[in-house]
């Protein structure tokens, strides 16, 4: 399982991450979509506690063991809040389908890992 200290260092060093939960290897291609915001957690960066993150990872172990599921995390610099999500990474060529999936899941955006860009999941996004 992933080490919360490593996640914290990635968050502080890179601003975010998408990782394979079984290997800890970063995913750097595709489009990341949060599947269920009820599985996400959000807290102030100043309130990061490794045990809290470890408990969140453990609570979602079954979901994260499914094929195509990854751990996504990012720091919202405007609010200084950390978000941790269970995400699905879809191939770059499936960007339109990823945007539709995001809308269906109630998400406002997807993250294009290859371009390092947040993309809106609005009706006009592609």
Give the SSE map.
Layout: H1 4-14, E1 16-19, E2 31-34, E3 41-44, H2 50-59, H3 61-64, E4 69-76, E5 81-90, H4 95-104, E6 109-112, E7 117-120
Antiparallel strand pairs: 1-4, 2-5, 2-6, 3-5, 4-5, 6-7
Rg, rounded, reads: 14 Å
Low-confidence stretches: none
Q: Which structural class matches the secondary elements?
A: alpha+beta
- Cα(first) to Cα(last) distance is 34 Å
Number of helices: 4
Helix content: 25-40%
Give the overall average pLDDT. 92
Summarize the helix and strand pattern as letters: HEEEHHEEHEE
Overall shape: globular
The main sheet comes to: 7 strands, antiparallel
**How large a portion of the residues is in β-strands, by DSSP E?**
25-35%
Number of strands: 7
Keywords:
126 residues, seven-stranded antiparallel beta sheet, single chain, 4 helices, 28% helix, alpha+beta
Describe what this molecule looks like in 3D.
The protein has 126 residues and is an alpha+beta fold. It has four helices and seven strands. Strands 1, 2, 3, 4, 5, 6 and 7 form a seven-stranded antiparallel β-sheet that branches. β6 and β7 form a beta hairpin. The longest helix is centred in the N-terminal third of the chain and has 11 residues, at 4-14. The chain is globular and about 35 Å long. The N and C termini lie far apart (34 Å). The mean pLDDT is 92.
């Amino acid at each position: 399982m992933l080490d919360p200290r490593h996640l914290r260092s990635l968050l502080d060093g890179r601003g975010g991450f998408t990782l394979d939960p079984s290997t800890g290897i970063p995913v750097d291609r595709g489009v990341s979509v949060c599947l269920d915001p009820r599985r996400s957690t959000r807290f102030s960066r100043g309130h990061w506690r490794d045990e809290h993150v470890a408990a969140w990872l453990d609570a979602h172990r079954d979901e994260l063991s499914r094929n195509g599921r990854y751990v996504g995390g990012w720091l919202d610099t405007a609010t200084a809040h950390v978000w941790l999500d269970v995400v699905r990474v879809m191939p770059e060529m499936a960007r339109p389908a990823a945007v539709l999936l995001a809308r269906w899941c109630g998400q406002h955006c997807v993250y294009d890992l290859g371009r390092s860009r947040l993309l809106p999941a609005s009706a006009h996004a592609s």
